[in-house]
Inverse folding.
């Protein structure tokens, strides 16, 4: 199922709608600044729910919250709109129709619309209406296809990368699931790895080049 | 107000010139084109966590593509540091057809001293004799012995941590205690030593304090230096030279003031001062002094000289030789090898060491063993572990995937080559007469290309790097031998080279104009060759030496 953004939404209407939606479904409104969306490109309510759901499937809740819980879905939508992970790169002229039909005005792929369509297609209906385990299976199948041998670029890779960014740069993901130490003080070059060892989200070299 | 000296620029060399000249008793005006940034008070993002940033530290890439298309390519440019880089759209420069040159700039008080990589290496006589040896460029009018005491002085002031290795090609300095190698780096060092005794991997020599120095605290191992450091733990104008110069009571600083040209008096054959645009009032102003130090950054200092052409000097100020703007350089730079390093899965490290390692040059020293090139290359890099970002490349979702990303990832070792860049007349700066900037000043036009010598060096570097990491048990997964775009090393230099002969060089052995006795250029513009070491420490040593000479000349009435 596809939904389109109602035409003529004002920024105020979008923000009000987003606030109401957040209240209704428990989305963490404060996770991103919604005023950073161009109203013409503001995501639909369904897209926000879908990205929250998919984010939670990719990084589920364990001892720590999942990616959907911390607002990674909204972050993905914001990041896609602002070109993170090269998401505003124009599609090539010979892009397949299954992607080209989701092109934005600037010829970049509208990944959120593409994902809605892809998952609904896999679901043979409304992906959001499926049971959780069935949703997870469909996302796993999508992930397998996107990382299959020989596949270099895939819209899912962009979305998944942003889900991870949204999660591990959130306060729960960065400082509870991983460790965060802005001022380590010392550099200890050689430390044994134990069962309790967790990576640092504040290891900037690893974040940039790992 | 009359000044003894005007220093144009407040970055690494401008700040040092202001310090040295004021401490020599001179009354100095330092003019900075960018905004004021106060130490400790104006490092707006220094303590921010990713979740406090609108784009989580990655920044608004759509905006960057419009406004920072060059600066965003700098590895230090992030959402945290974007305020320390120029807006490219507002600060355009021209490129000759076919030139791909990324000019990374920081227009603010402190200039690039706030954003620099802090790697601090002495040059050796292999470097100062390179031009004479192979005939490229012009011979340096100085040798290592001329500069050694000034390296000592600068290192002791700025604070450089490093390990003494006794290498002729990378002379030891006055070091603070070194930072530590991690287990993978220690292993690779030992494998190199055992198999190639002339190759030395050592910890990076970096201007981060490992011992407190005056008001400056020790490095906290955050490795977020380019945000600004309230501990004052790395050398910057704000942490180091500006406080020293201000303490003399003889320094005046003007910010938001773009110097467009120098005034020259043909009767006395002296510069008399500078003309500048006050950005805050959009008015043109002037200041006078008994001498001028140009420290605007290599290309901008040349820009000012070219734009200061007059009837008496129609080809640019101090350009009787005709070589002003020519022979610009930047290190040819590329990722030579990255290897997965198995066998260290039970080890990790904590803290963020603000330096990597260096493998000192070993080619073309006493024996010419370069394949297709006559100069040197060295490697920088280090061993690091991956973290959650590796998950972007990997298949997987769900709890198992989350658990995998919770652990430190695979060790990998990276070697990035920096190759000596041959000085060529065809690599040059000119004024673009067809395009002006927002102040109405002709844009600087860059013509630049690497040649067969740099490509040959990087090809040999790639082969060497792969061989060394393989010998150390690594699994090399990637490596390149094509240089990045010009400017990628952020070591652009040359354009007002030093030399013996006024007919073929712009500056003499004191960084002083051959044509104009009271004009000094002591930033990267003065360089006659590039070596393969990071150049800032040498710029500083040359600056301190020139300031000492200039102050003596002034006292003795020779300026």
């Amino acid at each position: 199922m596809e939904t389109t953004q109602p035409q003529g939404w004002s920024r105020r209407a979008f923000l009000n709608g987003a606030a109401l939606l957040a209240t209704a479904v428990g989305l963490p409104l404060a996770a991103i600044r919604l005023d950073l969306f161009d109203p013409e490109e503001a995501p639909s309510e369904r897209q926000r729910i879908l990205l929250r759901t998919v984010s939670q499937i990719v990084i589920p809740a364990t001892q720590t919250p999942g990616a959907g819980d911390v607002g990674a879905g909204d972050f993905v939508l914001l990041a896609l709109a602002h070109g993170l992970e090269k998401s505003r790169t124009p599609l090539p002229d010979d892009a397949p129709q299954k992607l080209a039909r989701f092109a934005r005005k600037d010829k970049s792929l509208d990944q959120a619309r593409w994902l809605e369509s892809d998952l609904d297609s896999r679901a043979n209906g409304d992906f959001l209406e499926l049971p959780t385990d069935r949703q997870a299976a469909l996302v796993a199948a999508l992930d397998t296809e996107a990382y299959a041998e020989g596949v270099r670029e895939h819209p899912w890779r962009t979305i998944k990368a942003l889900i991870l960014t949204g999660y591990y740069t959130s306060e729960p993901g960065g400082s509870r699931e991983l460790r965060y130490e802005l001022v380590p003080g010392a550099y200890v070059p050689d430390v044994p790895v134990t069962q309790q060892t967790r990576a640092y989200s504040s290891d900037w070299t690893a974040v940039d080049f790992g | 107000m009359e000044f003894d000296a005007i220093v144009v620029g407040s970055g690494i060399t401008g700040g040092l010139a202001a310090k040295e000249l004021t401490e020599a008793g001179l009354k100095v005006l330092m003019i900075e084109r960018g905004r004021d940034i106060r130490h400790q008070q104006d490092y707006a993002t220094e303590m921010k966590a990713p979740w406090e940033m609108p784009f989580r530290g990655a920044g608004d890439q759509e905006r960057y593509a419009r406004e920072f298309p060059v600066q965003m390519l700098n590895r230090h440019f992030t959402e945290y540091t974007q305020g320390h880089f120029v807006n490219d759209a507002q600060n355009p420069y021209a490129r000759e057809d076919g030139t791909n040159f990324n000019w990374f700039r920081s227009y603010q008080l402190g200039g690039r001293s706030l954003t620099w990589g802090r790697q601090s290496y002495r040059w050796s006589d292999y470097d100062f004799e390179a031009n004479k040896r192979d005939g490229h460029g012009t011979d340096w009018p100085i040798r290592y012995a001329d500069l050694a005491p000034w390296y000592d002085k600068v290192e002791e002031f700025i604070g450089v941590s490093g390990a003494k290795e006794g290498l002729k090609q990378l002379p030891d300095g006055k070091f603070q205690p070194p930072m530590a190698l991690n287990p993978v780096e220690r292993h690779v060092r030992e494998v190199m030593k055992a198999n190639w005794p002339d190759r030395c991997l050592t910890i990076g020599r970096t201007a981060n304090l490992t011992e407190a120095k005056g008001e400056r605290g020790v490095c906290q191992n955050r490795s977020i230096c380019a945000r600004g450091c309230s501990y004052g733990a790395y050398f910057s104008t704000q942490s180091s030279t500006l406080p020293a110069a201000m303490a003399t009571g003889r320094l005046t600083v003007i910010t938001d003031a773009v110097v467009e040209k120098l005034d020259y008096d043909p009767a006395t054959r002296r510069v008399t001062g500078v003309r500048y645009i006050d950005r805050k009032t959009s008015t043109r102003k002037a200041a006078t002094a008994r001498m001028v130090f140009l420290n605007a950054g290599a290309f901008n200092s040349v820009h000012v000289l070219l734009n200061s052409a007059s009837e008496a000097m129609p080809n640019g100020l101090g350009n009787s030789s005709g070589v002003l703007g020519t022979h610009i350089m930047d290190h040819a730079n590329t990722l030579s090898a990255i290897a997965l390093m198995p066998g260290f899965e039970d080890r990790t490290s904590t803290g963020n060491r603000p330096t990597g390692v260096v493998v000192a040059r070993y080619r073309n020293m006493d024996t010419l063993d370069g394949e297709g090139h006559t100069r040197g290359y060295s490697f920088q890099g280090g061993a690091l572990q991956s973290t959650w970002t590796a998950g972007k490349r990997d298949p997987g979702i769900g709890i198992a995937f989350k658990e995998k990303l919770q652990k430190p990832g695979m060790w990998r070792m990276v070697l990035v080559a920096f190759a000596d860049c041959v000085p060529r007349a065809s690599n040059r700066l000119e004024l673009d007469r067809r395009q002006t900037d927002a102040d109405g000043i002709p844009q600087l036009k860059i013509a630049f290309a690497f040649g067969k010598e740099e490509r040959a060096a990087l090809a040999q570097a790639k082969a060497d790097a792969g061989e060394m990491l393989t010998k150390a048990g690594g699994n090399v997964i990637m490596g390149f031998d094509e240089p990045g775009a010009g400017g990628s090393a952020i070591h652009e230099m040359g354009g007002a080279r030093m030399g013996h002969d006024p007919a073929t060089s712009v500056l003499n052995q004191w960084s002083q104009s051959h044509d104009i006795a009271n004009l000094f250029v002591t930033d990267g513009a003065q360089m006659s060759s590039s070596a393969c070491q990071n150049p800032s420490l040498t710029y500083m040593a040359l600056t301190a030496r020139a300031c000492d000479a200039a102050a003596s000349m002034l006292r003795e009435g020779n300026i």
Notes: Chain A touches chain B through 66 residues (CB under 8 Å). Chain A is about 45% helix and 0% strand. Residues 13 and 137 of chain A are 36 Å apart (CA to CA).
